[in-house]
Structure formats: C-alpha cells, structure tokens
Amino acid sequence: MGNLIPLFTITTAYVGIALAQQSNSEEFIKLRRPVAWALTVVPPVLAYLAGVRNFADVLAFAGDTGDMMAFIVLPLLMWLATKLRK
C-alpha cells in the first residue's frame, strides 16, 4: 500500500501534464489531435524502448520534453506566427 500512493501521485501528475501539453499543442500550434497526441506520447515511449527502464527517468524525460515544448518551442512558434501575420 505504501508504494501505491506514490505511484498514483506520479502517474496522475504525468497524465495531467501530458493532457495539458496535448491541449496546448492543439490550441496554440493548431495541430490536429492525432499529431498533438503523437508529440505528447511518442518521446516517452521511445525513451522507454531505447532502454530507459526506470519509470522515474521516463517521467523526467517526458517532463523535460513537455517543458521544452511549452517554454521554448511554443513561444518561438507564437512569435513566428505573429511575425508572419504582419
């Protein structure tokens, strides 16, 4: 029981961040749902298949990928979209 609570906590945090990232990709980058889903799900799956078997490491990679998308790529794309509209 003592291990289930942290597992649920980490898993729900990951799911929440993944859903937020998918929604941001759909809303701000105007990606279709399957493409946004793929950008959210594929990088952590590839990390797992590449041999990273520690669940915390996969979550860290997923979080880093989401942070990069949310705080680097997304603002750059928004800036570029603004420049192209003018």
Structure description:
The structure is a single chain. This protein is mostly helical and about 90 residues long. Helix content is about 85%, strand content about 0%. It contains three helices and no strands. The protein has helices spanning about 5-30, 35-50, 55-85. The radius of gyration is 15 Å and the shape is elongated.
Salient structural properties:
86 residues, mainly alpha, 3 helices, 85% helix, 0% strand
In which range does the helix fraction lie?
over 70%
- Derived structural class: mainly alpha
Largest sheet: none
Number of strands: 0
Rg (C-alpha, Å): 15 Å
- Our estimate of the beta-strand percent is under 5%
Shape: elongated
Q: What is the arithmetic mean of pLDDT?
A: 84
What's the SSE blueprint?
Layout: H1 4-28, H2 33-49, H3 55-85
Helix pairs in contact: 1-2, 1-3, 2-3
Quick synopsis:
The protein is mostly helical.
